[in-house]
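Here is the promised in-class demo. Please do not try to memorize the tokens; focus on the logic of going from shape to residues.
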């Protein structure tokens, strides 16, 4: 089989990255380069910040997809996204498979059902580029028809240096185009405050911690490991917080949290 990295298409795609003179051209050229070596069904380039809501730098979603998956996402539910959580960590991989970073019950969570399952992605690879202490830019490369093959995963890893360099270039171009802006975001602070204080008037600190981990897709055993308490104690906290919030399911817990975000 012909080496994809020896083809004229690959070298022309790399040349396109070098020629690009603005963030949108650079992003499109980077996606073109990725597309020459791996087939995919959509990409999204997001800047995650410690003190602000995410920025959508570039994406290949149709208009309806942007409204459903991105605008709703940035309105608050990104706080529950494992990718956002990973991006905010000091130590993070440069390339990871989304399914390998999930809490153990994430696919049973309401966040997954309402924000991930609707994308119809069967697989997702994510490049993470640390810009500074405040910002990490993530490139999502998705598959809808099947999962990535072993050969495709190897090629995605092989082009990581090119993709990482491209992401850094795109960020510089995009940030320069935005001009001088406030480094903090009042909306983000309100969302974080809402998440951290969710149920504060009726729940104990441990019950609030339990509710936060439930919202992010952790099982009782996983919560026990994170909080370093017995699984039985987690079940007691879960039973108590459900009673205090007058709910009977994690669906209702998620809905109550989203309602609180909407009322911020």
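The designed amino acids, position by position:
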């Amino acid at each position: 089989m012909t080496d994809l990295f020896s083809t004229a298409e690959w070298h022309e795609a790399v040349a396109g990255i070098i020629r690009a003179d603005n963030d949108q051209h650079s992003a499109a050229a980077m996606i073109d380069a990725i597309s020459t070596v791996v087939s995919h069904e959509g990409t999204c380039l997001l800047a995650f910040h410690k003190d602000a809501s995410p920025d959508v730098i570039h994406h290949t979603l149709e208009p309806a997809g942007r409204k459903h998956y991105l605008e709703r996402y940035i309105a608050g539910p990104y706080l529950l996204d494992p990718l956002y959580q990973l991006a905010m960590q000091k130590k993070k991989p440069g390339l990871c498979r989304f399914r390998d970073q999930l809490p153990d019950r994430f696919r049973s969570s309401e966040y997954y059902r309402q924000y991930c399952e609707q994308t119809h992605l069967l697989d997702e690879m994510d490049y993470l580029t640390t810009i500074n202490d405040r910002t990490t830019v993530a490139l999502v490369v998705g598959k809808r028809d099947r999962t990535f093959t072993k050969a495709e995963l190897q090629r995605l890893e092989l082009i990581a240096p090119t993709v990482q360099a491209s992401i850094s270039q795109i960020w510089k171009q995009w940030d320069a185009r935005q001009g001088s802006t406030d480094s903090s975001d009042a909306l983000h602070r309100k969302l974080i405050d809402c998440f951290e204080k969710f149920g504060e008037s009726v729940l104990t600190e441990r019950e609030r911690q339990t509710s936060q981990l439930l919202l992010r897709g952790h099982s009782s055993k996983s919560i026990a490991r994170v909080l370093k308490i017995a699984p039985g104690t987690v079940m007691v906290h879960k039973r108590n917080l459900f009673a205090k919030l007058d709910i009977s399911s994690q669906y209702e817990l998620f809905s109550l949290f989203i309602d609180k975000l909407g009322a911020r």
